[in-house]
Design goal:
Structural class of chain A: alpha/beta
Largest sheet of chain B: none
Number of helices of chain B: 5
Order of helices and strands of chain B: HHHHH
CATH architecture of chain A: 3-Layer(aba) Sandwich
Distance between the termini of chain A: 20 Å
Largest sheet of chain A: 12 strands, mixed
Largest interface: A-B, 12 and 10 residues
Number of strands of chain B: 0
Structural class of chain B: mainly alpha
Shape of chain B: globular
Number of strands of chain A: 16
CATH topology of chain B: Non-ribosomal Peptide Synthetase Peptidyl Carrier Protein, Chain A
Strand content of chain A: 15-25%
Number of domains of chain A: 1
CATH topology of chain A: Peroxisomal Thiolase, Chain A, domain 1
Oligomer: heterodimer
Chain lengths: ~425, ~90
């Protein structure tokens, strides 16, 4: 027997704003969060891509040292969005520590800032410097640092899942959390992901020729998903979290139901670790529809992974067309903020929820001339006032991991 | 060579500023009254090493794990300083 899984809270820190009002305003206004790359004193000057999806506003963290001491920047993001959701949800303290609430949250690494500092110390070859590696550096840099800083801060005692699968980190977090609730293992799960500002990620993608380099003088003109003049992805930062809850549990406490996760699928291409794979992606989208027990015509909107790489967008377009035809509106939300890596699936799902709630769909930013190989889709043209009842959020990662989440606006009818 | 009062002043400053202790008392229980845990103990040892100007041996650090109060910290620092003089 399976149970229905609803979304009863969400929060996001993104390059286009923090919280619903700011994010919706940016979407409606066509505001980009892509900024010039900061100089962090490392190899920045040699990186060809000079752009980054940046969270450049101040967040007033109110965490005591007790909690701060084990947190790198990425955990600050994670704990802040978790705090937002838990404060709004007003879950009973007894439930939070009952073992029936779990956390499925992660990042692509732990905190790369902390990791860099550790390695800088290692290469100093100095005994004095060695002792400066802090007792908490491991706790800040381990890959599940976000999840366990959240459990610690709020006294959560249920399952901890730290899916760390690059660009599908948080979409898997949500999907795995959904399965925890659906199959009765937990009654609620805090799910999402975060990634902090990290120049090394830009450097790696830059050397893979995957980063945007042609718009360094006008950062907001990139990334350009599906556009014939796209030239690659833009790395970004941020965090997103959703509270997933079993339907009757949510109803019993009178929680507002923002949406329902109605399906999830994840698979692997079983081969190349970098190249997008039409067969694997197509299978994921079809598996998600099967999990939700709906057909492709039921899907009103697709939040595409759409990183703006030359091949990725083409393969994804083909997969979308093969599965959905030209029925649903399609938007690549990374066009607003770049690729927030471990946070992107959660952020894109939350933005999709916001748009469904407010009755509009934002277009892909910077999509001026659609690449003819991506032109068979129904790309969202301008801010479109419309009702979308069911949406697909799809994400694909290095390593050949694919995910697709299906959600409904409010309760599935 | 610092006096006990000088050590106390430095330790209280560290605990107040770096560890955010609120009105620390010399015989307060560090864990119960201020949430001081094993991670804090390791971090404090690094600061004590800096104060003393020498590196503590592993066994010496392990001795610090029995510390419960600020007075215990002061005793420990005095003992470590004395061990290097003898």
């Amino acid at each position: 027997m399976t149970r229905r899984v609803v979304i009863t809270g969400c929060s996001a820190i993104t390059p286009i704003g923090y919280g619903k009002d700011e994010i919706v305003s940016s979407l409606r206004g066509g505001v980009s969060g892509v900024k010039p790359l900061r100089d962090d004193g490392l190899l920045t000057e040699y990186i060809h891509s000079r752009v980054f999806g940046t969270v450049d506003y101040t967040i007033d963290y109110e965490f005591s040292r007790t909690f701060r001491k084990t947190m790198g920047p990425v955990a600050f993001y994670g704990c802040q969005v978790a705090k937002d959701v838990l404060e709004a949800a007003k879950l009973e303290p007894e439930f939070i520590s009952s073992g029936r609430l779990g956390v499925s949250f992660s990042s692509t690494h732990g905190s790369p800032t902390v990791q860099r500092d550790i390695y800088k110390t290692f290469f100093s070859k100095s005994k004095k410097e060695f002792s400066s590696i802090g007792a908490v550096d491991y706790l800040k840099s381990m890959v599940h640092t976000t999840a366990v800083n959240i459990t610690r801060m709020f006294g959560i005692t249920g399952r901890v899942i730290a899916s760390s699968t690059a660009c599908t980190t948080s979409s898997q977090s949500i999907g795995l959390g959904y399965e925890m609730v659906k199959y009765g293992i937990q009654d609620a799960m805090l799910c999402g992901g975060a990634d902090e500002y990290d120049t090394t990620t830009v450097a790696v993608f830059d050397n893979l020729l995957a980063c945007s380099v042609d718009y360094n003088d006008r950062p907001q003109a990139t990334p350009r998903p599906f556009d014939q003049n796209r030239d690659g992805l833009v790395v970004g930062e941020g965090a997103g979290i959703v509270l997933l809850e079993e339907l009757e549990h949510a109803r019993a406490r009178g929680a507002e139901i923002l949406g329902e996760v109605i399906g999830f699928a994840s698979n692997n291409n079983g081969g190349d670790l970098i190249l997008p794979n039409l067969e694997g992606i197509t299978a994921t989208l079809e598996l998600a529809l099967a999990d939700a027990e709906i057909t492709s015509v039921d899907v009103d909107f697709v939040s595409a992974h759409a990183t703006a790489t030359k091949m990725g967008d083409v393969i994804e377009s083909q997969a979308m067309y093969d599965v959905y035809g030209d029925g649903p509106l399609v938007t690549g939300l990374k066009s607003y903020m770049g690729h927030t890596m471990g946070a992107c699936g959660a952020i894109e799902l939350i933005i999709t929820l916001y748009m469904m709630e407010q009755g509009f769909i934002a277009p892909t930013l910077n999509l001026e001339t659609v690449d003819e190989r991506c032109n068979m889709l129904r790309h969202t043209s301008g801010v479109t006032e419309c009702r979308a009842d069911i949406a697909a959020v799809q994400n694909f990662a290095f390593g050949g991991v694919n995910t697709c989440l299906l959600l409904s606006h409010g309760l599935r009818s | 060579m610092m006096t006990r009062n000088e050590i106390q002043e430095k330790i209280l400053a560290i605990l107040t500023e770096d560890f955010e202790f609120d009105n620390p008392g010399l015989d307060d229980n560090l864990r119960d009254d201020h949430g001081f845990d094993s991670i804090d103990a390791i971090e404090l040892l690094a600061k004590i090493e800096k104060m003393l100007g020498f590196t503590l041996e592993r066994k010496e650090k392990e001795q610090a794990m029995s510390i419960r109060t600020i007075n215990d910290i002061l005793d420990y620092i005095e003992a470590m300083a004395a061990s290097r003089r003898s």
